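dumping this here before i forget
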Amino acid sequence: MNGQMKAFFVIIVLISGFFMACNSGTKIDKNQLEAMKKDTTEISFDEDEHDFGKIQQGEVVSHTFEFTNTGKSVLIIGTVKASCGCTVPEWPKDPIKPGEKGQIKVVFDSDGKRGQINKSVSVMGNIPKTKVLHFRAEVTKDEKTKTK
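structure:
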């Protein structure tokens, strides 16, 4: 069997497996569905937006958003995506038990930015909906880089 035939065969097997997995016929009864709804995970933030105020162009600032797992299941934050490359989020990688607290740190680099800035980070995991955190700043021109 040549390389193209092997690749084609592997693709057919993968596609077949996908369709069989999606059509497995597993049914959830009403009691199981209600139990799943009760065991949802929820994340509650102390604040979901932050204002850095006025900062100098090129300044790097950070803020920590504190949260609590207010659900009944373990919270797993899969990823936190920033709205641009000038923002770097840090989040806990370990599961957070119900009632426990955690933090998401957001680091914003204002290099090359100017004026009113509005950015966000999206928190995704085993929560019902993506949670979006916002921050803003007024970036003023760095006087050291003024042209003559």
